[in-house]
C-alpha cells in the first residue's frame, strides 16, 4: 500500500507543491527553512517548484538564506532557482543572508549573481 501511495505522489507534482499550512509554505519551503538538505534534495527530485513563493513572497531560497544553510542554497542554485526574486519587502535572498548575518551564504549568492550576470544569453 505504501509503495502504491509513493508512486502516486511521485507522479503528482501538485501534491509535492501543495502548501502545507496557512502561510502557503510547501514542503520545499519547510525543508530549506529547516536546513534539511537531504529532504530538500528528495523534494527537488520529485520536480517540486523551487521558485514557489509563500504569502510573504519568499521562495525556498529565502528560507535557506535566513537560516544560513549553505548546503540548501547550493542545492537550490544548482537546480536553477531564481536568485533575483524579491519578497514583499523588496528583498532578495542575498539581502536576507546579509541582514541575518550569514556572511558565507551572502557571499555565495553574490558570487552566483555575478556569474549569472556575466553568462552570455
UniProtKB/TrEMBL annotation:
Q: Which UniProt keywords apply?
A: ANK repeat, Repeat
Q: Which SUPFAM superfamilies match?
A: Ankyrin repeat
**InterPro entries noted in UniProt:** Ank_Repeat/CDKN_Inhibitor, Ankyrin_rpt, Ankyrin_rpt-contain_sf
Q: Where are the ANK repeats?
A: 56-88
Q: Gene3D superfamilies, alphabetically?
A: Ankyrin repeat-containing domain
Does the keyword Repeat feature in the UniProt annotation? yes
Sorted alphabetically, which PROSITE patterns does this protein's record hold? ANK_REPEAT
Q: Name one GO cellular component term.
A: cytoplasm
- State the protein's name: Ankyrin repeat domain-containing protein 37-like
Instruction: Please name the source species.
Output: Trichechus manatus latirostris (Florida manatee)
